[in-house]
Amino acid sequence: MGRAGFSTTDSGRLLLLGALLLSVSLGELEGENLSGLSDNPDRAIFAVRENGTTCLMVEFAVKLVVPYDVLALNRIDLITEQASFTLPRSAQIDGKCGSTESEIHISWKSNAYTLRIFFAKELRAKGAEVWKISKVQFVYDTSESSHFINAYNPGKHTATTHRLSALVTPAGLSYVCTAQQTLTLISSDHQKGVTVHMYDIQIQPFDMAADFVFSEPYKCITDQRERLEETLPLILGFILGLIIVITLTVYHFHLKLSASSTPPQLPRDRSMYKNM
C-alpha cells in the first residue's frame, strides 16, 4: 500500500503539541500557594509564576473588616454590624505579570471572597523608578453566612480603592514591613468603608531575584521609626554615661594637678616654729 495520511492519534498529538507551543509563546501563568512553608499560622505565601519562573510573590497576614446591614429588632430599622476575618492560607491564586503592571487575585470560599491587588511601576523625579500598589479590590458575598450573619438583602458587593499609591518601593527591591499597614476601600454597598489590615509583609511584583526568591529588602518607614525608638534610649544612656565618666576623669586629674602645683604654706604665727 502507498503511504497513508496521519492517523487520528498522530493528529491528536500534533494538536496537543501545537497547543503547548502556543501556551509557551503566549506566556503560561500559574498561581502557587506556598503558605505551608510559613511558620506563622496567620501568614500566607502566594506566588504567580510565568513559564516556570516566579514573577510576583507576596508574604503577609491580612485581616479584613467589612460592615454590613441587618434588621433591627423592630424589623423596620437597619443597623450596621461588622464582619471580621483573616485571609485563609488555603486560598486559590491567580494573577498576571507584566513589565510595568502586574496583579494577584486571591479567592476563597468558592469565590465568595476575592482580594485583588494591582501593582504598577513608574518613573518619578530625577529618573528614579519605583513600584507601588496602585489599586486594591475586594469582592465579597454577604449571603455567605459564616461571616455575615442575618445580613439584610444579601448579595455580592465590590469594594475598591481610588487613586491609590501605597507601599512605594524602589524598583528591583522587595517591600518589607512588620508593622501594620491599613487601607480603606469604598464598597458598592451604600459606600461603606471596608478596611484591609496587612502586616508582617514582604512583597515583590517585579524583577524577582530568582524563582521563589525575593530581592534585597526595602524596609518601611514605620519599621525604621520603631527601630529608632527602641535604640534611641540605649544610645542616649550610653552618651550620658560617657559624659559622666569623662567629667569625673577630668575632675580627678584637675584635683591631682592642683595639689601638686600648690606650694606648702608656712604658719604665720612665729610661736608655732618652736616645735619645728
Keyword list:
single chain; 276 residues; alpha+beta; 14-stranded mixed sheet; 2 helices; 22% helix; disordered N terminus
Structure description:
Helices cover about 20% and strands about 40% of the residues. The chain has about 280 residues and is α+β, with helices and mostly antiparallel strands. Strands 1, 2, 3, 4, 5, 6, 7, 8, 9, 10, 11, 12, 13 and 14 form a 14-stranded mixed β-sheet that branches. The longest helix is centred in the last third of the chain and has 41 residues, at about 220-260.
Question: Which helices and strands appear, and what pairs or packs with what?
Answer:
Blueprint: H1 8-26, E1 29-33, E2 44-50, E3 53-71, E4 78-86, E5 92-96, E6 101-108, E7 113-123, E8 129-141, E9 156-160, E10 166-170, E11 174-177, E12 181-187, E13 193-204, E14 217-219, H2 221-261
Parallel strand pairs: 11-14
Antiparallel strand pairs: 1-2, 2-3, 3-4, 3-13, 5-6, 6-7, 7-8, 8-9, 8-10, 9-12, 11-13, 12-13
